[in-house]
Amino acid sequence: MPELPEVETIKNTLQSAVGAVVQAIEIRRQDYVRRADYDPAGLSGGNIASVTRRGKYLVVHFHNDQYLIIHLGMSGRVFLSSEVDVPGLSHVHVVIHLSDHRQILLQDPRRFGGIWFVREPGVVFSHMGLEPLSSSFNVRYLTQIVQNRRVAIKTLLLNQNMISGIGNIYADEALFSARILPTRMAGSLNNHEIRILVRSIKKVLRAGIEQRGTTLRDYRDSDNRPGGFQNYLQVYGRHQQACHRCGQPIQRQVINQRSSHFCSVCQK
DNA sequence: CGCTAGTCCTGTCTGC
DNA sequence: TGCAGACAGGACTAGC
Questions:
Q1: A257/B6 CA-to-C1' distance in Å
Q2: Contact at 8 Å (CB) between A259 and A183?
Q3: Does the annotation count A121 as an active-site position?
Q4: Can you list the alpha helix ranges (DSSP code H) found in chain A?
Q5: Which residues pair with A115 in a beta bridge?
Q6: What's this model's pTM, rounded to 2 decimal places?
Q7: How far apart are CA A54 and CA A236, in angstroms?
Q8: Catalytic one among A11, A53, A54, A56?
Q9: Residue A3 among the catalytic residues
Q10: Taking a C-beta distance cutoff of 8 angstroms, is the pair A265, A247 a contact?
Q11: What is the per-residue pLDDT across A235-263, written as a single tens digit (0 to 9) for each?
């Protein structure tokens, strides 16, 4: 579910938990833990030093160089709750009890997400591509990774080993903004198109963050607030609706198992 | 090595 | 109202 702007928003709303002392960590589903390099029980008594983001991952840094890495998969949510028990909330796999009586709940119905208890975040991120909002993600880098690639440009944008954080919504939106068809072979993009695409990716992601993410169905930040970027979508989820630019109906086509939305008039 | 297709899950919506 | 089938914001991996 959550892509870079949504995870960034969750990270921002979780800042109110920084400094809080962990009373206990409750792992209700052991199979949600992908890796444990230390005993999570040892986190009790320490405090949360920071909460950051890498790609679509949340990084919770505790004392003593102990990290909890969280990936929310397709349906994951993080709640910062002050209630002892949230009624009607199922599929909560992890609860971090804080000594101020708040708790961080990790819910994930489909369980495509997971968590890692590691002493060094690099072991999880070793193969990850550049952050698209960093200065190193630029025309030179995109030129280098599209070179000779015979995959659809959209497939490349979704490849987390190349660029980390772009998902199905923002890939479609960035390609519409750049006026490039998602089916175009990556290696066929010219310098001009690469330049526009870099700019479009950054612009769309920044707008998504500005709007606190996209809520199509169940996305919420850790304060349970929905995002607002769904009101600004140009193509995603707008199949057969009029293109905001030219008025022609938006097309939908499956590319690499993912539904893709585009305007066949505006995008070439 | 690069790439495609199948797989992991549950919930919700659509059409019969 | 019930039920089958499609579909969903992600990402691994077997196999070509």
A1: 10
A2: no
A3: no
A4: 4-13, 122-125, 139-146, 153-158, 168-177, 191-210
A5: A33, A70
A6: 0.97
A7: 24
A8: A56
A9: yes
A10: no
A11: 999 999 999 999 999 999 999 999 999 99
